[in-house]
Amino acid sequence: MATLLSSSLLTNLSPPPSLSPSLSLHSLSFTSSISPSSSSISLSHRSLPRKLSLSSFTVKAVNASEEKKKKKKVLIVNTNSGGHAVIGFYFAKELLGSGHDVTILTVGDQASDKMKKPPFSRFSEIVEGGGKTVWGDVDAIGTVLKGLTFDVVLDNNGKDLDTVKPVADWAKSSGVGQFLFISSAGIYKPTEEPPHVEGDTVKADAGHVAVETYISQEFVNWTSFRPQYMIGSGNNKDCEEWFFDRIVRGRPVPIPGSGMQLTNISHVRDLSSMLTKAVENPTAASGYIFNCVSDRAVTLDGMAKLCAKAAGLPVEIVHYDPKSIGSDAKKAFPFRNMHFYAEPRAAKDLLGWKGTTNLPEDLKERFEEYVKIGRDKKTIKFDIDDKILESLKVPAKPCLDTKALTLKDNISNSHIYLKLGLMGRTNQNHENPKVLHLLSSCLQKHVEKNENLLQTIQTEDVPTIFHGSRAPTITIRQYINRIFKYSLCSPSCFVLAHIYIDRLIQSESIILTSLNVHRLLITSTLLATKFIDESFFNNAHYAKVGGITRAEMNRLEMKFLFGINFQLYVNLSTFLEYCLDLMSEGSKDGVQKERPVPPIRGSCGIIENRSKNNDDSTCVTIEIHIK
User: Fold this and answer.
1) pLDDT interval class at 64 (50, 70, 90)
2) In-domain check, residue 37
3) 385 and 441, same structural domain?
4) How far is CA 469 from CA 424, 454, 516, in A?
5) Range of lowest pLDDT (130-134, 484-488, 567-571)
6) How many CA atoms lie within 13 A of 339 on its CB side?
7) Which of 352, 250, 348, 246 is nearest to 303 (CA)?
8) What are the helix and strand counts (H, E) for the chain?
9) Of 345, 342, 366, 357, which Cα lies nearest the Cα of 183?
């Protein structure tokens, strides 16, 4: 039997936690499990130290107003493909709107089929705004631009030094005063402390790193920008469209991992406004690297739900482990299967930049264009999706309108949901919903039954990360009521929590006892509210509610997710089955009928097989103390 260690980090919650933490849409606090590679490099540039408070910096305003008034001649060397192409398009239009002269050199041939697609097909907007558009090879940039002079050059084309060096060398020899480079936030080395901030270690072998090093040596005034994922009209790389394609066709949205990975998705107008700030205030921007991103993160599940909300349609999210089903997540999904997001700290402090990205509103606009161009009616193949769904035994067409879990449209079973307090509640309800009492009664009886059985057969329970060194003094009913009161979660979350606990018990062979039931409750409720509630508190708040530390809350969450193989989705028939099961708690004279542990059901009621996740690590526990 593993040794149980009792931590000295005791959390005493008296009085109960304040509700002062604001509701955070799709916010997470658990740490990344990615191990950084050994290959890394620290660039010598004027970056903002990670540990310094942002308030310790002041925006550089030296001659800023005078510099902004100057009309600049700007050259944009633009890529002819990929997600970054739209940056040059928006940047050109913003500069023209601010009164600057703009020439955009697109790499390649104007007659290429690539030029028939956005944003290139919209270059007439640049010409109409007074800008110039030319095409050519960067190796012959001097010939292509013969006779033209520029104050500023932006390279939005190269990903390595071989591609950028001809442009940089020509710019230096031509007397260009400011050189800007579009790099990538992808060069950051994975970190255990997201988000990425300017000054974090980068991958030594990344091509963009060599470019940043070179221009820092060759130019007095240089600046590099590291964007992430972006949305916006004219983007020729799928981002939000990937989600829309599946949602409008009623298909499940397969997301690798837990779906709780954080990323950064910015509207391209924010990127162009940051670049314009650098052009109009070159002194402040000189020698710095800027994370060219919006200032808010979103979870992968959150992105799917926001896209569905923008489309006014339901969404069925299916999670999967790419390795276990032999799928390449890079080909199957448009985002990285990890925490990958950065913060624009330097731009805010040095340039006075402010982001305007508002995903809920921006995605509505994007969906309108999606429908306007007729993409919702196009024939699209989902071969990779189909293989993933087949391996998970999930049909390509959803078996459930996920709006049903809101219980608003499910009239046939409304009497059951009303009795449980899952619907028909208002802010004036002062009594706890009946589901809390029934769930606590159900769990309490199973705990007593299991502990009596263990005592009868004289067998000791095998401790897990969910076990405490002794049973908390707070009862199960008090604990459930406390969670409901201070988490503000929907009552339906407790039905899902019940289902999740059953799934974990079967997959991990855990015996429900008074030593583990509290941690299982707080963790399963946390996962349930993140899955079905539109807004919720973060892990730190749930830790206070549960009487544990935030670090332990994070560990419990990850262990639970792996234990149920990230299967958070519950179909309506399973949901109803558990509701009826709980209703039996209030049957004749309050006597509970013997309840066999129900089968683990998948998203379509299919029996699931789950592999056991062994945890051989020493079990360090923290006693729950709540007054």
Assistant:
1) low
2) no
3) no
4) 41, 17, 10
5) 567-571
6) 21
7) 246
8) 23, 17
9) 342
- Residue 573 CB neighbour total at 10 angstroms: 13
Q: Please name the amino acid found at residue 34.
A: I
> Where are the alpha helices (H) located in 145-206, listed in sequence order?
161-173
Count CB atoms within 10 A of the CB of residue 617: 8
Same domain as 444, residue 295: no
Dihedral in degrees, nearest 10, Cα atoms 246, 252, 253, 255? -160
Q: Which residues contact 496 (CB under 8 A, 6 or more apart)?
A: 524, 527, 528, 531, 532, 568, 570, 575
Same domain, 495 and 560: yes
Measure the CA dihedral 10/15/20/26, to 10°.
50
Number of domains in the chain: 2
14 located within any domain: no
pLDDT of 387 over the 50 cut = yes
In a domain, 48, yes or no: no
Check: CB of residue 346 under 8 Å from CB of residue 290: yes
Asked if residue 404 belongs to a domain, the reply is no
- Kindly report the CATH number assigned to the domain that includes residue 200: 3.40.50.720
Q: Are 107 and 80 in contact (CB under 8 A)?
A: yes
CA distances from 319 to 149, 278, 394 (A): 53, 41, 11
Distances (CA, A) of 36 to 28, 33, 39, 349, 446: 21, 9, 8, 29, 43
Single residue among 360, 391, 422 that ends a domain in this structure: 391
Quick: pLDDT tens for 157-166: 999 999 999 9
Nearest-CA neighbor of 82 among 138, 135, 158?
158
Per-position b or e across 491-505, b if 16+ CB within 10 A of its CB: bbbbbbbbbbbbbbb
pLDDT, residue 236, reads 86
Q: Give the domain range for residue 260.
A: 54-391
The DSSP symbol for 597 reads P
